[in-house]
Amino acid sequence: MDSYPKLRLYIDGEWIEKTSSGSMGVENPADGSDLGQLPVAGVAEIDAALEAAERGYRLWRMRSAIDRFQIITQATRLLRERAPRVAHAITLEQGKPLAEALREVILSADIVDFLAEEGKRLYGRTIPPRQPNILSQTVIRQPVGPVAAFTPWNFPVNLPCRKLGGALAAGCSVIIKPAEETPASCMLIVEAFHDAGLPPGVLNMVCGEPSKISSALITAKQIRKASFTGSVAVGKMLGELAARGMKRYTAELGGHAPVIVCADVDIEAVAKLSVTAKFRNAGQVCASPIRFLIHESKYAKFRDHFVAQAKALRVGSGLDKSSNMGPLIHGRRVREMQSLVDDALALGGKLCCGGAAIPGRGHFYPPTVLEGVPLDARIQQIEPFGPIAVLQPFSTLDDALAQANGLSVGLSAYAFTHDLATAHRLSEELEAGMVGINHFGVSQPETPFGGWKDSGVGQESGMEGLLSYTEVKLVSMAA
């Protein structure tokens, strides 16, 4: 349990330990130690993966939905059996507390199971013909083809599983490129599919220099769809590449989630829920609540409870059972947190707690709360992707909604109220792909995950996530 897995790539049913491009190190963010060496895919490995994915697609698409279901769910059974080992790898390379990592593995298996089950129900429809010589008109769904999937480091099992579950259930083959910071987590998923009997070529995993691999895969003639989770800037670049080849594209990009707290709620209870949601995974969550807009009559009470709860969180190694929050993924993120805080304070913001990197080994930054931050501060404009919350009062719901909707992103948004009319108005007017009213749990296996505006195109998970890996075909048959 204490060891980190030996890192390998996976191409055409074979594990690859040495490549044409050498290797790169993987770091433990909690102490800076080296975990292992990751083989780097070069041109030879990318070409081999593309050829394998094309062969695998021809084979896999012809399997019946029930056959695909049986192999996929055998893989999830193995993933659940191996959950402690997988969670340990997550914590070593990503840093989150072990309990969070274990929940991620179990939820990820549930996501894949849902998509595999729905794969048996990729229904079409019949359309009555207008002419008597037309025997039938049917609309069917078929797999889009080989998929290139790119996932980040913050949820190194959950995010690959969303893409793999949808693509494999639909009958597609996949080349997945996980983040180079967290390769073992994805490798262990692939290992479960390998051991479950997934045919060679249906699933391939490569790692290396992100820009080179993404451009090579998306522009390759074999790839018919790309799916990306990551930053807005990179997502737009990859979307342009996909568009040039008229290839299907799903992008789940960044957010800057607002939380509107109305005057009629239990302020202490909402503050407690908010702290838990804000500092989960050290705030390295695309749907993380960031901008807390609290009715002015309850602002001071909310702030005091929120800050007290944030201060009480214990920051440390994710392997320490007493830790509530682990490290950031690398030193660059720590420096970015400090830059955001310094900018907010220079513009007149006030620091309620935190605000300085924790000295010593590892990339630790404390739960940080700011108030009175002007709207032109960087923290009000760009996603921190870290443990920083911004609190500010509002006087009218119109003002709160205007501020909540004022950015170019719209992934998630949250609101708390006990008034039914207000709840309906918030659910209607908040500009986000996912809206949580009176809770933060907007991501479930059965629900679509995706954003509006610059936060992305399309959805992962849910039935919508499965359909995104299919093409629509009309078949009109005459006598």
How would you describe this structure to a colleague?
The protein is of the alpha/beta class and 479 residues long. It has helices at residues 43-60, 65-81, 83-94, 98-118, 158-170, 183-195, 210-219, 232-244, 267-278, 299-312, 331-346, 378-381, 397-404, 420-429, 462-467, and strands spanning 9-11, 14-16, 23-27, 34-39, 125-126, 134-143, 147-150, 174-177, 203-205, 225-229, 248-252, 257-261, 289-295, 350-353, 368-371, 388-394, 409-410, 412-416, 434-437, 452-453, 456-457, 470-478. It folds into two domains: 9-253 and 455-478, 3-Layer(aba) Sandwich (Aldehyde Dehydrogenase, Chain A, domain 1); 257-444, Aldehyde Dehydrogenase, Chain A, domain 2. Strand 12 (257-261), helix 9 (267-278) and strand 13 (289-295) form a beta-alpha-beta unit. The chain starts with 8 loop residues before the first strand and ends with a strand. The relative contact order is 0.14. The mean pLDDT is 97.
Quote the average pLDDT: 97
The biggest sheet, with number of strands, parallel, antiparallel or mixed sense and barrel status, is: 7 strands, mixed
CATH architecture tag of the largest domain: 3-Layer(aba) Sandwich
Q: Please state how the strands of the largest beta sheet are arranged side by side.
A: 14-15-16-13-12-18-19
Name of the top-level CATH class of the largest domain:
Alpha Beta
Q: According to CATH, what is the topology of the largest domain?
A: Aldehyde Dehydrogenase, Chain A, domain 1
Strand residue content: 15-25%
Number of strands: 22
Class per helix and strand makeup:
alpha/beta
